[in-house]
Design goal:
The protein has 317 residues and is α/β, with parallel strands linked by helices. The protein folds into two domains: 208 residues, Rossmann fold; 91 residues, Rossmann fold. Helix content is 47%, strand content 16%. Strands 1-2-10-7-8-9 form a six-stranded mixed beta sheet, with helices on both faces. Strands 5-4-3-6 form a four-stranded parallel beta sheet, sandwiched between helices. Helix 1 packs across helix 8, helix 3 crosses helix 8 and helix 8 packs across helix 9. The mean pLDDT is 94.
Length: 317
Amino acid sequence: MLIPSYEDVLAAQERIGPYIHQTPVLTSEFLNRRTGAQLFFKCENFQKAGAFKARGASNAVFGLSDALAEKGVATHSSGNHALSLSYAASRRGVPVTVVMPHTAPEAKKAAVRGYGGKIVECEPSTSSREAVFAEVVAETGADFVHPYNDPRVIAGQATCSKELVEEVGPLDAVIAPIGGGGMVSGCCLTLSNIAPETKIYAAEPANADDACRSLKAGHIIADDAPQTVADGLKVPLKDLTWHFVSRHVSDIFTATEEEIVDAMRLIWQRMKIVMEPSSAVPLATILKNPGTFAGKRVGVIITGGNVDLDKLPWLKS
C-alpha cells in the first residue's frame, strides 16, 4: 500500500492549479449563533465539476505519462468522482469510461456525458459495481482511478484543507462528510503535517454508518448497499483511507435522514447556496452535538453541489 506524503500534496497543488478553482470560504452569523461555534464553510460546491473530487481526479489524470494517458482512464462511482474524472479527462483529451449504478441521479449522469464520458451501468451495490468495472478494465486497458482508495486522489483532495487553513488561519476542528473517506483522508494528511493541533471529525448518515462502526470496532466494517438521501456517502472505507481515518480522526458523528434534509434546507435558506444532501451531514451533526463544537473555530467542508433540482428531498412527490 503506497501512502501519499505531504510532499505529494504540494506537488498536487502545483499540478492541478490550472484546472481547479480555489474555492471561497463563506460564513453565516445565523449559523454561528445557532451552533455557538464560529463556522467556516469551504465551498467545494463551487468547484469545477461541482465537487471537491475534481481535485483528486485532476491530480491523477495530469500525473499520467503520455503512454498511459493514451489508453484512457476508468472508474466506478455513484456520481461526483465520475463527473470529476470525466472533467479532468476532457481537459487532457483522453478517453474515460465510468461504471455507475442505474439509480445514480440523472443530473450526475448527464454531467458525465456532457464531459464526454462513457457510462456503463450496474446494480446499486459495491459488489456489482466492482464486478462490472473489472470487465471494463479488461476490455479497455484503461488506468483505474479509484474514487478514493488511490494515493493520487487523496493527495489531490488534501489540497482542499490546505487552502482552508491558508485562507482562515488556525482552526480548532475540521469536519467533513465521510463515505469512502477520500476527503477526510486528505484532511488527515494535510492537517497532521501543518496543523496537528486541529481535531479532525467526520460526519455520516445514520443509515450508512459503517465508518462510525469501523472506528469504534478498530477495523473496517463494510455495508454493501445502504439506503440514504446522502447518495455520495454510501461506499465503505478501504485500506488506504482506513490508514488515515484510524490514526487521525477523533470521532465520527451521525445524523438521521430528517436531520440531514433539515440541515440542507437550512443552508439553502440562510446561505443561499446550492449543495447536495451529502454536504449537509456535517452541519446536521454539529447541530446535534453542540458540546463538541461550541466556542470553537470549525472548518466545515461543503463537498459538492450536484443535486437534482427536480427531486429536492423536501419536495412532495
